[in-house]
Write a structure and sequence with these properties.
259 residues, 2 domains, alpha+beta, Alpha-Beta Plaits, elongated, 4-stranded antiparallel sheet
């Protein structure tokens, strides 16, 4: 009796979702395709997942493809996962598998991250490069060095500028103005092709070539920042060596941004 009750509940759930897609019973036998009407009634972009479930194929590639499509369409992750749950319930009467959820979420996240990296590479107010742009420029430096058989650790370095008292400046606009002043000062010392970006709320980083003048430039920058007064008096400037590999360099940049 208990087994029969469970089966009845399962049929009821499937029936509810079938009503939502304006069709009759849609629970298919494994290895059979869904009817065109049922496919049309599934949540947007999820038809490929429903078809894979009905035919007994590996559903993860379809989930990954759908995740990328939904991200490009601007659908948020919560809505995407809700659609996946609905599709599973309609076709199988069960919740989605962990592997299916991971495949969709990972593809959605990767597509979204790629879009973010394509956005404006600098802050329109301060003119500072975004952290994503600094990371991209760092990757270019490593790629070019690999092609030449050179060492990035020997040719480039990060100059870090920290304003520990910036948290005491009132308002977001006030802090942004201090970033503008500091950025202008940094450009006086590094006026060439160096990439100057913001790393966290109180840090700036400069990606430039490691030359015999680098140490002197750091000393000069420290003096100029001290002369600004205010948070500039508490500024700390140092040279951060770069590791051999690009992945390690990206991790270093993230650590500097979090600290």
């Amino acid at each position: 009796m208990e087994g029969a009750t469970s089966d009845n509940r399962r049929r009821a759930v499937v029936g509810i979702f079938a009503t939502l897609v304006r069709k009759g019973s849609v629970e298919p036998a494994q290895g059979r395709e869904l009817s065109p009407g049922v496919l049309e009634g599934l949540p947007g972009r999820l038809e490929a997942v429903g078809d894979a479930l009905a035919c007994g194929r590996d559903v993860e590639p379809a989930c990954a493809s759908v995740g990328r499509d939904l991200a490009r369409d601007g659908v948020d992750l919560g809505e995407a996962l809700c659609g996946l749950r609905t599709t599973y319930a309609v076709v199988t009467g069960r919740p989605p598998s962990l592997a299916a959820v991971e495949a969709l979420a990972l593809a959605w996240s990767e597509e979204t991250l790629g879009y973010v990296h394509q956005l404006s590479c600098e802050d329109p107010l301060t003119g500072l490069a975004s952290l994503a742009h600094v990371r991209a420029r760092l990757s270019e430096v490593y790629r070019e060095a690999d092609q030449r058989g050179a060492s990035v650790a020997a040719s480039h370095a990060l100059v870090v500028v920290e304003l520990p008292l910036l948290a005491g400046v009132e308002g977001r606009f006030g802090r942004a103005m201090w970033h503008v002043r500091v950025a202008e000062t940094v450009r006086l010392v590094f006026p060439g092709s160096e990439t100057i970006g913001q790393a966290g709320g109180s840090r700036l980083v400069v990606l430039g070539e490691r030359t015999e003048l680098l140490g002197r430039k750091v000393v000069a920058l420290s003096g100029l920042l001290e002369g600004l007064g205010g948070p500039g008096r508490g500024a700390q400037v140092w040279i951060e060596g770069l590791p051999r590999g690009n992945d390690a360099a990206a991790s270093l940049l993230d650590e500097l941004a979090r600290a």
